[in-house]
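Example 3.
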Amino acid sequence: MSASLAPIPSDVAALSFEEALAELEKIVRGLESGQQKLEEAITAFERGSALRRHCEAKLAEAETRIQAIVERADGSLGTRPLA
Amino acid sequence: MAETLVPPAALPSTTTSNIPEYSVSEISAAVKRTLEGAFGRVRVRGEITELKRYSSGHIYFSLKDENGKLSGIIWKSAVSRLGLVPENGVEVIATGRVTAYGERSSYQIIVERMEYAGAGALLAKIEMLRARLAEEGLFAETRKRALPVLPRLVGVITSEQGAVLQDIRTTIARRFPRAILLWPVPVQGEGAAARIAAAIAGMSALPASGPIPRPDVLIVARGGGSLEDLMAFNDEAVVRAAAGCSIPLISAVGHETDTTLIDFASDRRAPTPTAAAELAVPSRIELAADVAQKTGRLATAVSRLMGEGRLRVTGAGRGLPDMAAVLGQARQRLDDRAERLRMAPRTLLMMRRAEWRHAAERLPAPDAWLDGLRRQVREAETRLRLGLPQLLGLRRNAMALGVQGLASGLRHRIAVLAQAEARISARLRPAPVEAGHREARAHLAGLSARLDSVSYMAVLERGFALVSDAAGHPLTRAEEVGRGAALAIRFADGSVGATADGGDPAASRAARPRPPTRQGSLL
């Protein structure tokens, strides 16, 4: 889809994965109901495409880093990497 | 030990008895020595009762069973190392020394350690705490929060050593690689509960944008063990920390059959640490499939909408008249009219020409026509020339014949008339004619007389007069005559004008019924 080349709007990028997924589901349901006007449907589709790309980007973020909390002598907290 | 029971033989006796005599202090001390020497360290099993915490920090209580009661003391210095928090009704095994308190003539056990007397006792103690916290509302369903679908950072509170952390790490890496923040704690033994409670509170207190990232979800986990091993997770402080945690918390303590009080306070309870990790992070494959499925539905729905729109446009277009055909027809009609217009003068000319030609065909050729006329004239001339003498001859003959006929006719007529005259003359004698005249004259006189007799003139002759108005209309009624009216009176020989004098109309009216006597004799 050519829409995937467009940058993800900032308001979409700020959404959490579940928010984006929930909105995508809502848009899909709305479109599937067939009640929308064509212009609205196209706008919704574009938003849905952005949400989809955002979701996929979130899914692509895979991090395995592990750190442990360290309680220092002065009572403050720090972290140290854990093998 | 036996020697302490032997009375001092050297003491003097004031009685004849052989029984030695002690002071109170002496016997108390002796009993104390005997008790402490005979028992030393003991373990005593009993139910805690009459428990009192003194402001000094020492705890006084009693241990009891069916038939006995034993006073006990936990010195302040032993409370923190006791191993449990003593409560009334809990059956415990107390470890300590039996000692006597000489001032009160009592003996007691000084407890250094205390442990629950068997699983039943422990479970009873847990159940009591559970009931109390439940009543407080700490375990209410309404307090439970939903776990985030896709956490960025997973907090883990467990031992740094052991299989639990490893299980969690591998599960998260398998399902959806995420960053993990570990808060290492001892999970059993002395002080474990306090460390666990502090770790939960510490994680909960991490600021959202501090140097240490704040986890989106928390796992508090411990591997399987005995009931006593898991007791840190039944600790009230731990349970309260879990209930008050600001981060959604998953508890996973022991095996599936083990239930600790932290499980009631957590947002989700997992049967094992692996299960906790599965709850904490979603399966990336499943999520990707979900996104792909929604993407497919998105594309399908939009293309279906587009298709429907296209169909509607086509359908609407079908309802419209076929403009091309309409235009074509119009163009064709226009062409037709234009062609006919273009052709009209020529056609008209041709028609007129045809009519003219037709008429011209019917017209005789002028020369021929003239020839004809000339011929006719000549013929007439010839016939005239030939016919005139003949006609004259004929006429002459006819005239002669007519004259002849006329003369003879006249002669004949004259003769006939002469004869008729003779006959009429014979009949026209004067006598009969005169006789006839006389007769007729007499008849006429008779008729005249009769006519005269009916004429008013005759009446006038007889002395009557006719009165008429100025206009000549006869007046037959006195009332018709107005006063001073001009009258004309006609006599037999002429008329005389008269004017009516003043007769009273009323009198004349009154006289009306009476007809004039003179006129009564009329006729």
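The first strand of chain B starts at residue 41 and ends at 53. Residues 366-454 of chain B form one domain.
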